[in-house]
Amino acid sequence: MPWNDQSGGSGGQGPWGSGPRRPWGQQQQRPPRAPEGPDLDEWLRQLRERFGGRGGGGDGGAGRRNPISWPVIAAVLVGGWLLTGVYTVDEGEQAVITTLGAYSRTTGPGIHMHAPAPFEARRVINVTGQRTDEIGFVNRNNQTTDNPDESLMITGDRNIVEVHFRIAYNIKDVVDFAFNVRNPVTVGNEPGAVRQVAESAMREVIGQRQLEPIITTDRAAVELAVEQLMQQTLDEYQAGVQVLQVELLRAAAPSAVSDAFRDVQNAGSDAETAVNNAEREAAQLINQAQAYREQAVREATGDAQRFVSVYEQYRQAPQVTRDRLYMETMERVYQRGNLIILDQRGGAVPYLPLDTMTRRQPQPGQQQQQPQGGAR
After folding, report:
1. By the 8 A CB rule, do 162 and 149 touch?
2. For residue 54, what are the contacts with CB-CB under 8 A and spacing of at least 6?
């Protein structure tokens, strides 16, 4: 075989079986192969072999494959159907099992099994988680938008008030919650029974009160009254719901009439201020009258007691009492008069400067009053 013959009996290899070579001993470069994808035919063949097995040899020594074993497939399907009855219940949840649509039992947390559909079905409900509903407004992207259909309510004094509130509740009886009330919670745009009861209770409580206390001092009382009325109504419905809290977020006059309402409030404040001032002045007058009355009573009592004491002295010594009364009376009468008393028992009458003695000097603090219009 020539040395440069590359197509010998070795299948196109060189003299030493090392593959095709070029004339000067250089090995021929083979082009790289593209990566091959998964062989679909091979995968189907393995799948048929797994379910059908391999038979004996046939013509030409080729193997003959058996058809797929349908009993095995049926067993797999039946097992999968039975496994649909296996379920788990998390902590804080309960599962309600129904048999052909009728209530059968309730299961707690853990792994359980029931008859597969359509014989039995389950409904797993969270019974301890707190559920909330916001009524009167819509909160989207941290922005509150008023919902007039729910927020506007009429008070007992025929005013309109805008109310936003939030309720919180959970489930106390899962069977009643699942079967006694249709749509107890809000789903999509359809309001649930609990939400409707809350709105109705709030409207009833607001309709029994006046506007000013609602927006000022009676907020806590309104929350408590709504919570009690909600719980009473839901218990009558046997809804299986426990009301945890009613929170009044906003209670004010509607924005469309806020200016007029503010004017009314200011007028009410002015009226209240005027009434308070009048009451204060009336109280002062009453106090002054009471003080004057007490003073007059004390003076009259003192005069009466003094008269009684004088009378008692008079009864004991009438002449002495007369003389003393006479002297005191004369002292009061002649105290401010310009008089000179001469005793006739003195004998000879001395000369007295009567014109100077009758001129009394005014006492300090006293002013002589002159008649208006001059002397007459």
Report:
1. no
2. 63, 65, 66
